[in-house]
User: Fold RNA polymerase sigma-70 factor from Mucilaginibacter rubeus.
Amino acid sequence: MAYKDLAEKDLISLLQQNDDAAFSEIFNRHWGFAYLHALKLLNDEDEAKDIVQEVFTSIWNQSGSLTGETNLRAYIFSAVRNRTLNHIRDQKVRSEYMDLFAIYCAQHQNIILDAIHEKELLSAINLVIDSLPPRMKEIFELSRTEHLSHKEIADKLDISTGTVKRQISNALYILKDRLDKPENLIVIIFLQSIKGH
Assistant:
């Protein structure tokens, strides 16, 4: 069967039967424009590749949502756009939160030290780090413990710098989320201080 000669509705039908070759043909037909679309929005080659990879992974995992009438180019265009915009929004929120948190800590050092013992906070942080997914934990520790740059980590683990940045950002987000408990007064005090922002 010459997959390159098949109509897209036929490729979709085969894809829904978990046909690897059909998926490869869809990928080959649409990867280029999907990547250029993501790159235009992100202006970062590695992050653009990651976004497109996520979109095609989603297509494979959720092929049942497609129909023979689905316009794959329009579907992929929309998926790339939405996933990219969500990524930009999440990165902006996390970046703003971490910046604000750093400023708060610098301005309220005495209150923080009175509110929670350093060893208790460190212990709580280490527990959360130990609970991270193995790959995320490895990347986070290479960054925070060995002080490697994003590029050095990417080269060491043979992954993209975009993946490194995303994993570190996700780890920081998880730390904040897991430490947001009454016994961790530093976080509670900080959260209260930004309620009006």
The first helix runs from residue 8 to 15.
